[in-house]
Amino acid sequence: MHKSPNDPKQYRYLTLDNELKVLLVHDAEAPRSAAALSVNVGHFDDPIERQGMAHFLEHMLFLGTEKYPKVGEFQTFINRSGGSNNAWTGTENTTFFFEVSPHAFNEGLDRFGQFFTAPLFNEEAVDKERQAVDSEYKLKVKDDVRRLYQVHKETINQAHPFSKFSVGDLTTLDDRDDKSVREELLEFYQTHYSANLMATVLLGPQSLDELEAFARTYFNHIPNHGIPKKAIPVPLVAKDEKAKFITIEPIKEVRKLTLSFTLPSVEKYYRQKPLSYIAHLLGNEGSGSLMSMLKSKGWINTLAAGGGVSGSNFREFTVGLNLTPKSLEHIDDIVAAVFQYIELIKKHGLDEWRYQEKKSVLELAFRYQEKSRPLDTVSYLVMNLFHYEPEDIIYGDYMMAGYDEALIQELLDYLTPDNMRLTLVAQGLKYDRTAHWYHTPYSVTPLSDEQLKRWHQPGEEPELQLPEKNPYICERLDPHPLKPDADQPPKLIQDLPGFRLWYKQEDEFRVPKGVVYVAIDSPHAVDTPRNIVKTRLCVEMLLDAINESAYPAEIAGMSYNLYAHQGGVTLQLSGFSEKQPLLLKMLLERFANRTFSPERFQNIKAQMLRNWRNAAEDKPISQLFNHLTGLLQPNNPSYPVLIEALESLEVDELPAFVEAMFAELHIDTFVYGNWLEEEALELAEVLKDAFRVTDQLYGESQRPLVRLGQSGTRNYEVNCNHADSAILMYYQSRQATPRKIAIYTLANHLMSTTFFHELRTRQQLGYMVGTANLPLNRHPGLILYIQSPVAAPAQLSEAIDDFTNAFALVLLELNEAQWQASKQGLIAQISEPDTNLRTRAQRFWVSIGNKDTEFNQRQKVVEELRNLSRADMVRFLVEVIKPRTSNRLVMHCKGQAHSNLESLDIGEEIESIVDFQKDAK
Question: Which GO molecular function, any one, fits this protein according to its record (predicted)?
């Protein structure tokens, strides 16, 4: 099995007696053991009269088996074992996965294996989970992704299984005169869940022999019905559905144009990756690219090539463009430009050196790939078992085994106007149809002969150029030798007025990569909502201006980001370290020579307004979270506040604002990874020169937080344009000590599965039900939330209060072993070693921001967790969480479905945000 030289894991591939494919992964350093099992069955296999059956079955397998009959017991076990679990249903696969502390893996597999041999499908659970599936469907009725997907399903070949409704609802999963849904569920399970259609991956610190014994013990007895996977006999898009223009009305303000070309499956060419080569050229964002030309005309904001749905007998290849308002008059011109670039590739773009360049970038990514979480690793490897030969399971995503010009040319020949479906998503067009399930207005018209003729002979555009050789591809790939103090925590190597430099050479992962953080704090950047908006707008304009020049660096395995926060802005670089100074120099030069183009300003302003206004169409629970942080953090306003400030902003305000912002700066820099100390100091000089840092007296910006103190219950109502109601209750710690962090984190850990089981599974109040640990400005916080299609905020508030009143008793009923196991599970999660250089860099950076200069906050929290007794937690619940006496913030919105029900009357209403925020410190 071909693996990366940087990968210390051991692998073993085998097939069990029942034909189930197995990959075993021994990772001596894995903090948790993980398993994934995928069945080659998905919504394509749903009976036409029972759409959503595969998805419903996925839900049901978690709800009790013969050996472990109690509903919710699997999640409780996973939670106590410091793990997590989930599942998803796709078109042709259903995949289940979980991870736990290694000592619990044996029992976890015993429970998991039962899903595939002895599920109960008990009648009460069937009825309740059918409601949960219906809630899941209703939750996404106004989700544009689902709404557009449904139009896609209705405009392809209706004989193809892609056209089926994948989620299911109460009408498709109802009991019928002749048969209950439970009987059909059993039939579906017994027919389709066959070992020869399954693959599993087991990963952990256990030896390969031990993992093999687990696989044989828990999966060998899954029945093999010997069913071959049925081939799909019809094409995704028949001749009648090609050369069509489809227009779709979104709920959010979106303008997107997609050119879709349907190809046969290209899975057998995974070693050559011909479509990756084509997408690499068409999706290029550098100078002379299709994106660059269309952007310069003010027609598009972004372009992406190579996406699209795929399956066992089809592959879509798409070019997706996000449009500006004025481009709606230039749709035909944009399509013509795409075909001009396709012609340019056909005539001049087929070169082996381009293939080799792309191959060398992938080889570098493979050679120096870093670890991911065990759960993520098993989830992607299990899919590779279906798509790649055994020796390529690990390497398949990265391999480019040879340049095949004839094959690339053959696939390019599918990218023609006759084989295209053109989709325009925009508000206010004419529509004559409405999609089923999601009620999306749309229309379908044939492309005209004129259009087809023009696009068949698009002509040449001199502005369009193919990319040059990439100057950012790295050559020096051996990491620097380690210095004697490399194993020490980050150290402060420069502490000057207005400038601090932290540094650490990376000593464990040994990859030629680095991360650089530059936090630029400026009180002027955040002192009013208007300035906060100006800061964000300047960030977007700078990112827009540097995109073209920095694109080759991204292709070569480096990334950069600039983002606004509560103190100012932060620049982050990551990836291969050798050429990062070159990238930084280019970014700083572009910043120094900044221009504020009125046209780009208008486009970016319109884009930001659109995104923020669209947030008003987000699901209610997302809106409540946004308003919560906006209320409590004055430097992080909610979307309505940002929109109001942005609407009247003009481009000529920006130059003076940037000058004023950079007149009072405080910079914190952290250089980490494959860097020597002298290189870090050189980077620091470059930064100080660029930002004119000379004996500045400004400290960091303050990041105020409203303290709830002894305020009792305060409530704030948000107006959400949605059928569902939602509620969110937030409890805040007055102190930010390790003990308080331990208490709030443990409370969330202990409550999460019981809360979910009680309010979602048992009471069926909604699909989105949960608890969350939300620290704000270092202060721990606990959140309980529900979004519900069936109950108004008053009822949801009562249900949460009943839960918190009773939860102390739940804790008292745990035996000592369960109590210790719960604590140990959380300690294992918190103590989990960083999987790669980037996650460790981020942890160090957060510590620097939190003034944890000894970098041992985690250890202190773990120590406090070990010392917490059950009495401490019961006291916390009674004194802090108990509804009658608690100091909490209740955010809520009443859905249109509940407009006639009583309003929530709880605590004191927040009438003035300005007055409420006076308590910010």
Answer: metalloendopeptidase activity
